[in-house]
Each structure stands twice: as structure tokens, then as C-alpha cells.
Amino acid sequence: MIEAQKALRKHATAENKKINEWFFKTGPGQYGHGDQFIGVKVPENRKVAKQFADLPFKDLKILLESPVHEDRLLALLILCPQYERAVKREDVITQKKLFDFYFKHRTYVNNWDLVDQSAPYLSGHFAFHHPDGHQKIFALIDSRSMWDRRIAMISTYYFIRQNQFKETIAMAEALLNDPEDLLHKASGWMLREMGKRDLKPLIAFLDRHGTKMPRTMLRYAIEKLSEKQRKFYLKSTRS
User: Is the pTM of this model over 0.90?
Assistant: First the structure.
């Protein structure tokens, strides 16, 4: 066990362990089945991340490959700020190393909070600024792994923030018939964020695909629309 793991376990409690196991659906047949928790709250995890901000790849690998969820989250809470610092320094070489490490180990980014912590900035930023990253990330939409598909979808958040929406639209279209509710939520969330930036592409998407959208995706997407608009699209979608 490395020092970062020892520091993290000082914040673990049995009560938080039970809460996390319930919240992240670790029961049989649920999406988080088999994931292990020690009971550390996210704010405490962030504090430990700051203590080990410069952790090298060999230790990040140990954290990210751990069966313990909080260890994996700690790795990402360290990795993402390292990437942010590389961006501020305009250190493209380090950015690529960090992205490549993340992409290589993405199989351990295997719950929605882990994806949502890392994809909006790290993979999204790299994909936006580097063609090879763009190809790698958005090819994940065809992956058999639902977490890969969520990485692809949530990575478009960075594109939305740059007022570029074609990736969000393409990923949402690809997920219209996805069997996973967590992907419907992710798509609806990104469509909603797009609409907050520019309502026109959201309305165009709803007019084109509203009758085919899963109910969850639609509800997330129309959350910020007027009551009249929400009722109109809810009447037209499938159950």
C-alpha cells in the first residue's frame, strides 16, 4: 500500500461505506455490482489529492488499478489537476503523456462519477485540441463498455463550452437506442448544456429525434425549456 492510500484510509468510516455502496448501486444486477468502497467522502478525497498532487505515474497506476473505488477516484483527482497545470504551462508533451495514461487505463474509469470527474476536461480538452485524441475518444461510442461510451459522450462537455456542438449531436444520435439508462442520462445532460449555450441546435435535435428519444434522455434534455415546450415534447416521445 502506497502512502496516498494510507492517507486516504484515515478518512474512511463504516457509515460512509454503507452510504457509498447504496448510492453507487453495488447490489447484484446493478451497474456498480462488485465495486468496493472503504467509506471516504469526496471532499476528504480531494484533500488527500492535494497532499499528493505530484504523484508519479507508477503510483497513479497503483491507485487507478485498485479494486477500491475511492482509490481510483483519488487517482483521477490527482491526474486531472496535473493535466490542468500542463495546459497552463502550454506543455503539450506532458498533456499527451497524461492523456495517453488515462486512455490506456480507462477500463478502471468504471463508474459514472469517475467518468464525470475526468472526461469533461481531460479527455475533452485533449480531443478538442489534438486530432489523434479526437479520433480515439469519439471512437469509444461504439465500444461494448458503457463506461467507454459515457466517456465519449461526457467528453463533449468541453466542446460545448467552446460553443462547438456537432460532437454532442453526433454522440447523442449514436446513443438513441443504447440500452443503458446511464447513457440516456448522460446524453440528455449534454443536450441540455448545449441548449443553455444555444437553444436552436437543441430544438432542431428534439424536432428531428424527439419521438425516438428514450424518456430519460428527453426529460434531461428539456429540463430548462418552458413548460409549454416540455409538455409538447413529452407528449410526442416514446415511453
Answer: yes
